[in-house]
């Protein structure tokens, strides 16, 4: 099993604005570090090398970041160290705190690349039901299930 993660953010201004220039300038180096990080498997991106043009959640202003890692430890090592940690510490300059959960983690079979629609289901489930094996957070992690317990890629569902 691998770990999928999604986080969404609503910028305080358009990405082309001077107010977000430092954030935008950090995208390429942070993405390059992620790509080379131990445990990194995949990240959502366009031909431009990032996901800032990908839309979802019914709001064209949202920025989506989604990736897959070999473990929660590998993801945590990347998120909470180095340049990514520095950018994370400054996030309130560029993104206001969201009222609802804006990040979700879930286990996927090796080789699966989650879709934005799948991530929407996971985040919505977390918002409604709180952390569970279906959708969880760094603060409330769940262990990886046996591969036999996970629905096939084309059978994703939202448990009640």
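^ structure tokens above, recovered residues below v
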């Amino acid at each position: 099993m691998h770990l999928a993660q999604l986080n969404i953010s609503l910028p305080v201004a358009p990405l082309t604005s001077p107010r977000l220039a430092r954030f935008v300038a950090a995208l390429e180096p942070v993405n390059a570090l992620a790509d080379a990080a131990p445990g990194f498997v995949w990240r959502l991106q366009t031909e431009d090398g990032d996901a800032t043009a990908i839309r979802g959640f019914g709001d064209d202003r949202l920025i989506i970041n989604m990736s897959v890692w070999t473990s929660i430890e590998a993801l945590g090592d990347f998120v909470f160290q180095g340049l990514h940690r520095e950018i994370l510490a400054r996030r309130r300059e560029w993104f206001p705190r969201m009222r609802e959960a804006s990040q979700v983690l879930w286990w996927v079979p090796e080789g699966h690349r989650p879709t934005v629609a799948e991530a929407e289901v996971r985040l919505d489930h977390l918002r409604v039901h709180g952390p569970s094996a279906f959708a969880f957070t760094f603060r409330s992690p769940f262990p990886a299930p046996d591969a036999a317990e996970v629905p096939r890629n084309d059978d994703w569902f939202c448990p009640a």
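Strands lie at 2-9, 40-43, 63-69, 103-108.
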